Amino acid sequence: MQKSQWQQLEQLLGDGVTARTITVDQWEHDGGNRRPEPGDRMKLDTGIRFVTRTVGSELHVLETDKELTALEQELIRLLLQQRNGKTSGGATELERQARRLGEWIGQNAASGDWRMEVPDGMELRSRLFDGMIPFLLLREQAEEKEPSYGELDKAIRSFMSEDTLLIPLRDHEWLILSPDRLLAEAEAAEEDVLEGHERKAMLSSLGSGLLQMVSGEWGGECHVAVGDPIDPVESAVQTVGVLRETIQLGRKFHVGMQVHLPWLIHLERLLSGIPEASRIRFVEETMGRPDMFNDLETVSTLDAFFAMDCNVSETAKKLFIHRNTLLYRLDKIKQETGLDVRSFNDAVLVRILLLLYKVTKRK
């Protein structure tokens, strides 16, 4: 290291500095990020630890008990990166910060600490604010061309807003946080505050647009979950957990759908918690004809009927059939099962049966 750089480090770190060599496993065990690079740091009970050099599975680190400001920590990081002949390891500073936040979110989500708040030491915390729309994007077909962070970030910013943040989580999975400005603009355009159902329809539309943009650009099978605006400092971890569950339940109960909404899976979430043996027994005991849902026409008719809130005219339009044809199909279901889906109680029962049958059949 050049003398001037070393002098700067001495000035910043002071006298209480310890040089050590540890393993990458020890770094991660103590709470450090994955794939540590020179300049990375972690908070210890006794101070701060900085990575000065990486050698295979070993890390050369400096530990100091001095209280350092955020600016001083950033200067030390830059000096250590310059010493190793790199500034960002091939990634932009924004990507490095986003990956660090994504790893923190992932660790807390996996351990069940859903109520953890983003710590002050996280660089991106200053760019998180109340009123950000959360999207969870999952690409399944890894054999398709995988976008780089920079490519995906540029495309999403162009589609949504320059203030949008792209945060990598697991492989092929990203959290996207976008300002709720689009919803505010829609309210201004309509000169009224959006009603709850209108806001949810807009969120669904944004999710569909994101899905089409990513699928059209890179191909492959994608899934998107979108939630109500949040304050990510307080609820980023919980939101990721909820949106992951939303995609999981949506894929299980609503095959063919790729945009998944938390407010549309309340019943599915409840049913998924019922033991499998109880689900199977309920289906077998309640269904008049065990093979009724094997008929694709019956299933598609019921799916459309429930999607249209049991409205006969709207369901017929959705299925592109005559109203009398739909009535004939509903009468046939009543004759074979003894359940009339035009009756509220029977409709609830058939809805539950259909969902249970779908998940039970796929076991």
From TrEMBL:
Signal sequence, start to end: none
Pfam families: HTH_30
Domain of life: Bacteria
Domain PucR C-terminal helix-turn-helix: 299-355
InterPro entries linked: CdaR-like_regulators, Homeodomain-like_sf, PucR_C-HTH_dom, PucR_C-HTH_sf
Name the record gives this protein: PucR family transcriptional regulator
